[in-house]
Amino acid sequence: MNKIPKAFLISDLICFVLLLAFLFSLPSKLFKTPTSFVIEASNGNLLSAAIASDGQWRFPVADSVPVKFKDCIIAFEDKRFYNHFGIDFLAMSRAMRQNWKAKSVVSGGSTLSMQVIRLSRKQDRTIWQKLLEVILAFRLEIKYSKEEIIALYAANAPFGSNVVGLEAASWRYYGRNAKTLSWGEMATLAVLPNSPSLVHPGKNSAKLIKKRNDLLDKLAKLKYIDQATANLAKLEPVPGKPMPLPQNAPHLLNRFKVERASLKIPSTRITSTLDENIQLKVNAILKRYNNRYRANDINNISALVLNAKTGQVVSYVGNIYQPENAGLQSHVDMIKAPRSPGSTLKPLLYASMMNDGFILPHTLVPDIPTQIAGYSPQNYDLGYDGAIAADKALSRSLNIPAVKMLQQYKYERFYDKLKKIGIGTLNQPADHYGLSLILGGSEVTMWDLANTYMGMVRTLNHFNTYKGLYNPEDYKPASYFNNENKDEKDYQRTSFLDHGSIWATFNAMEEVMRPGDEGLWEQFSSSQRVAWKTGTSFGFRDAWAVGLTPNYVVCVWVGNADGEGRPGLVGIEAAAPVLFDIFRLLPNGKWFETPATKLKKIKICKQSGYKAGEYCTNVTEELVPVAGEKTAVCPFHKLVHLDRTGTFRVTDQCESIPHMQHKSWFILPPAMEYYYKIKNSDYKSLPPFKDGCDLSGGNSVMEVIYPKNNAIVYIPLELDGTRGKIVINAAHRNSGSKIYWHIDNEYISTTTNFHQLAISPPPGKHTLTLVDENGERLVQTFTVLDKEKKGGR
Questions:
Q1: pLDDT 10s digits, 374-391
Q2: In whole angstroms, what is the distance from residue 739 CA to residue 730 CA?
Q3: Cα gap 111→200, rounded to integer Å
Q4: How far from 394 is each of 398, 504, 570, 670, 736, CA to CA, in Å?
Q5: What is the 3-state secondary structure of 602-634?
Q6: Per residue, what are the HEC states of 220-240?
Q7: What are the C-alpha distances in Å from 445 to residues 177, 222, 338, 339, 669?
Q8: Phi and psi at residue 224, in whole multiples of 5°?
Q9: What is the pTM (predicted TM-score) of this model?
């Protein structure tokens, strides 16, 4: 067997090594230079961009290059681009002859492929480097298509100053997308990479115009355009100094910078879901209101618009954008900033209580002076209704009924519910927030708040789509960029909030008078049906408005990024008008379909809103969430016994049973009745008992409104340093009755009709005893704090 000569083995090995060197000579990533972060609207137009980390305006490689630029750059740099494999030997030999004759470099033979290699290497061009460029250009042609090569060139060619790439140049010099440029504009850009340090807009304009015009003539000669078009293009002016790039979504751009790694997006460019037209108009609306509010030193405003049908962001304005005025803190993205939500969580409690069978839509809830463990909530108008329907309490945003409802529901349960439906800023235990959770005692972000409401909208929208089942993915946060991830279809029989409770909540949220409309908006067919809620944080630091339709969720925040409160900064006045201006931009649509199979028709007591009991006289049938069957029967309608004239209440000890009248009576507890009958003139108080009737074991006739039993109170000092007083308040069911007041078994005063007393008891525990003229007694205790031991809250 013949042995293979050693020389052949060596030559084969050398060839193999050279082949490997050639194959691996091109790096996997040709350009490692940093690129600008770029946000495009859903239509591909530029919304915002940020300069690259090396100080250059350099956009990522585009998917396609405008045909005009291809024609211009091929005509100017490499007219046989589509017919060679990286090296144009004809152009190279021509250049060598011209340079030899001129004894200097007057012409180049580099192809676009060779220029891409040169741009990627950025090294001094020795003869060896030029030879290597030839080899790498050939390797480039094997790995990349012609379209990819010209895209690499367009993205990385220098265009003067700190502008790199066609797209950046188009925006910096013309303020427009490269696809919209004319022949004259494109020819101007095409000649810039040839000598960008010598000729660029704002420098050597005459020379730039000559190079552009020569290229236009060449385009006509090569039949890319006709001569008339070339001549007209020559009349176009060349640009002057660079223009600033659009900054129509700067806060979303910054958000993308922060989140890009976690989102696993390889490029620094995204085509967002933002609607350019709506984004620009929302920017204009916020700027207009900001100019008005700044007169009151309210400097910041933000808005978020979500498409509930697609689960995508339509408009994202994190703040007004005025970087030239650092004091305004317009760089802060208020959509991501944790702030007090004011009353914007109240609809979530209302829905949760219906979902879990605690209330019906119109159930009466107490609205009376309240003190719970030293915590005394107040309504915004400082008044009391005594008792009010839950939906009316929601539409009027009353604080005391909300606290009473949360006390019934338990704040621990509501805290867990909020976390499940998307409120991600509850970082402290439930006890840290307590009952103040419902009045803005926690922090939320606009992002979480809007997405939570969108989850409710999507759940209700999908009632028919999912055949009455639920998809937890409906509560997934909105996406601000186009991705192909589809919602997982993991249908379930139950959800955080059921269809019926959401439907009833949105109906209650719709019953609010719009700002400036005086309740007449429903008469106009062009008006959208919108469910909405406002919120104002303690100290007038945050004004909120959140609104929704089956198609959109809109959230608006107004305030100061540094947390400074301002008088007049309330949701209904500052944020709601902005909300409805934004809704006027959005297309109208149908209202929510009624989730009929998730509602049940039951008999409701008209006066109390509870499930009708046997003594309810005015009964109506209503569609309520199915959990409404678990709610309590009306506790306020009771059977009372009257004498034969119907004037007095009686017992069997003072009136024979055959002579009694038995009537159903709507009876509220004394404290609720005290305020309720002031605003409800048709309320009928119970008649007094007939003389001689034994009242033992009868209904309670007195109630202390303040302080409640076992309350802890603090008596402050007056301005002159003297010790102040507390006002104790009681209610008696029978008007005109006298109450005899005792503190620690000592008589102190008598009141008639209006039962209030200002006292200044010493620190310590006290017993308050009330006795009426019929001998009815009410005894309870309260504790007065020593001022040195008062704790802050």
A1: 567 777 777 889 999 999
A2: 9
A3: 22
A4: 7, 12, 17, 24, 35
A5: EEEECCCCCECCCCCCCEEEEEEEHHHHHCCEC
A6: HHCCCCCHHHHHHHHCCCCCC
A7: 35, 60, 5, 6, 40
A8: -70, -35
A9: 0.84
